[in-house]
Amino acid sequence: MDRGTVGSANRGRLNVEVRTEGRSEVVTPAGELDHHTADLLREPLENAIEQGRTRLVVDCTRLDFCDSTGLNVLLGARLKAEAAGGGVHLAGMQPVVARVFEITGAEAVFTVHASLEDALNG
After folding, report:
1. Which end of the chain is more exposed for a tag (fewer CB within 10 A), N or C?
2. How far is Cα 23 from Cα 56, in angstroms, rounded to an integer?
């Protein structure tokens, strides 16, 4: 299911697809995750948790950029998912995105998988 973009000003900069696979809610952001587009990812992550889908897999294979605002969205989702007994798994990060997590030390607080398949089987 494609939830599209929330604001017309950001249309095309970030698209977020959401689907359920087994026990996981797979959220796939595609494009640039930054201050202007963060809510486009925040909303489906929060909706999934509210619906009891607390094992969140963020498929990062199509994520071209992530700044500190995007990182904070993921950290916030992680806290909410863990409080509900689940967690956030990151899959297939591109080098430019992985570097942000490495520099900030955030990679240490997420479960990071090389691929979506690994995250779904993990």
Report:
1. N
2. 9
